Amino acid sequence: MPAQDLSMISLVVNASLLAQAVMALLLVLSLMSWTFIFRKLFGIRRARIQTERFERDFWSGGDLQSLYQSAVNNRHHTGALERIFESGMREYLKAVEKRISDPSAILDGARRAMRAAYQREMDSLESNLAFLASVGSVSPYIGLFGTVWGIMNAFRGLSNVQQATLANVAPGIAEALVATAIGLFAAIPAVVAYNRFAHDIDRLAIRFESFIEEFSNILQRQIH
Questions:
Q1: How far apart are CA 132 and CA 170, in angstroms?
Q2: 183 near 26, Cβ under 8 Å?
Q3: What PANTHER family does this protein map onto (predicted)?
């Protein structure tokens, strides 16, 4: 009996239609997750660099009005923390122009504006993280479904064979296990990336919240 080709490509080509559909779905999920991984990797790196640059400029003792004008004039090139600062400073300047006499009202308005900007920036940073989490949790089960279906077909095929041997069932089982392998290939990078990005975003969130509190204290001193 000639040896059967058990290469990866041959196993995928010879798999059942449902198994091929499962593999195709997993490959699409893997491709999408890798796309989001690289986008998020560069996006978080850019946000970290912009945050460090603005913190350096802010704490260098420069004039707040100059920093605000710079943020307004270069709005399309500012980072997340700079946009949070711009929102708070804009609300503060509006309150000063309106000659609001209540210091707490001025400070509360600036703090609310910064909090709203903070939420927008966090929503942007956390975009697509839910997709990576879903791929990481669902892909192994999708692959397992394809494996179970393939093994069922392999054993069902033994009913047409007079003498069942390992050579008869091995190709079918190998085809089925390919689905599990592709599922793990899609899931593992997504899980690792999700955990890493979630940690990096949490660290940025802490820096943003700390800045909001520190800048609020600065505004409070200016008001009084």
A1: 34
A2: yes
A3: PROTEIN TOLQ, TOL-PAL SYSTEM PROTEIN TOLQ
User: What are the distances in angstroms from CA 206 to CA 27, 82, 118?
Assistant: 36, 15, 11
Distance of alpha carbon 104 from alpha carbon 19, whole angstroms: 64
C-alpha 29, offset from chain centre:
14
**204-216 pLDDT, tens digit each:** 999 999 999 999 9
Closest by alpha carbon to 68, among 89, 54, 52? 89
Can you tell me the distance from the alpha carbon of 88 to that of 115, in angstroms, rounded to the nearest whole number? 9
Write down the domain spans for the chain: 8-61+129-223
Token pair of 208 as six digits: 């943003």
pLDDT range class, residue 2, cuts 50, 70, 90: very low
Give pTM, 2 decimals.
Answer: 0.81
CA atoms of 32 and 189, how far apart (whole Å) = 12
Render pLDDT for 25-41 as a digit per residue (tens, 0 to 9).
999 999 999 999 999 99
On whether the CB atoms of residues 157 and 222 are closer than 8 A, the answer is: no
Distance CA 133, CA 157 (A): 37
Task: Give the DSSP letter string of 45-86.
Answer: HHHHHHHHHHHHHHTTT--HHHHHHHHHHTGGG--HHHHHHH
